[in-house]
Amino acid sequence: MPTSEIRELPEDRCWELLADQDVGRLAVAVMNRPDIFPVNYVVDDGSIIVRSAPGQKFAAATLGAAVAFEVDTLDETTKTGWSIVVKGPAESIENLADWIKAKDLDIEHWAPGSKQRFLRITPETVTGRVIQRQGAVRPSCLIN
């Protein structure tokens, strides 16, 4: 049976991979219970900007002490992939100049409805891991 190995990704590679995707998962605490929401985002100047509608997800993200944000790519056929987790506080973008800048990032939203609110996640930690089967083709995230 083939064996797998897990490697840590350097932080700069984590940011490159984050910048290549546009959907992640935002983990928040709602009434002291964990919940996870798929969200559209972009990387902007060392932070994650999330586009959202007002509501439970938005309130929980901005009222709590911190959030977790995760992005991954998995290949079930080769059983390889990578995962990046960003942890830190999230704040609502309220300042008009910052809101216009966030709006100009053109974060495409997949879900229907008005998504005119923006969150900024300021990372305290950024960690990434890649899983690779020994003897398999190297996942693209390991190739620089």
Strand order of the largest sheet: 1-9-6-5-2-3-4-8-7
**Computed CA radius of gyration, to the nearest angstrom:** 16 Å
Mean pLDDT over the residues = 85
Number of helices: 3
CATH superfamily: Electron Transport, Fmn-binding Protein, Chain A
Structure in words:
The chain has 144 residues and is an alpha+beta fold. It has one domain (4-142): Pnp Oxidase, Chain A. Helix content is 18%, strand content 47%. The chain has three helices and nine strands. It has helices at residues 11-19, 56-63, 96-104, and strands at residues 4-9, 23-30, 33-44, 47-52, 67-75, 80-88, 90-92, 117-121, 125-133. A nine-stranded antiparallel beta sheet has the order 1-9-6-5-2-3-4-8-7, sandwiched between helices. A hairpin with a 2-residue loop joins strand 2 (23-30) and strand 3. The chain is globular, with a radius of gyration of 16 Å. The two termini are 29 Å apart.
Structure at a glance:
18% of the residues lie in helices and 47% in strands. The protein contains three helices and nine strands, in the order E-H-E-E-E-H-E-E-E-H-E-E.
